[in-house]
Design brief:
This protein has 126 residues and is mainly α. Helix 3 runs antiparallel to helix 4. It is globular.
Length: 126
């Protein structure tokens, strides 16, 4: 809730360990070859593919939704860093609209039904 931009949310507030790892192993090498915007989008798409492996694959469905979610995140970061995005001063409402509203793409119903709920039942959390 404290993030004022999508870039700040993903870069400084969410999963710092993953961010540090990806910055070193993926972003910097890509940045040297293709520049900031393309490297940023590449990192978000790579994150989408990782999430496909740990969310959609075990759920045996919902393929493409996690990658679409992270593609949206990358596009949002690119937009807020663009001249029109900076002029608009998008702010916290934009961050919530982009990160929270489409979260069902990431944790899609098939994942909830086939993975999350059975796991919670096994742990006797439900």
């Amino acid at each position: 809730l404290a993030a004022r931009s999508v870039g700040e949310f993903w870069g400084r507030r969410w999963n710092r360990g993953f961010n540090d790892l990806v910055r070193t192993t993926l972003f910097r090498p890509l940045h040297r070859r293709v520049g900031t915007r393309a490297a940023t989008l590449g990192v978000f798409l790579a994150s989408g593919l990782v999430h496909e492996l740990v969310i959609s694959l075990p759920a045996r469905g919902g393929f493409g939704l996690p990658t679409a979610y992270f593609g949206l995140q990358g596009a949002a970061v690119a937009f807020e860093r663009s001249a029109p995005g900076r002029r608009l001063g998008l702010g916290r409402l934009f961050v919530l609209a982009v990160t929270a509203a489409p979260a069902f793409w990431l944790f899609h119903p098939r994942f909830i039904r086939r993975v999350a709920l059975p796991m919670l039942k096994t742990l006797r959390a439900l």
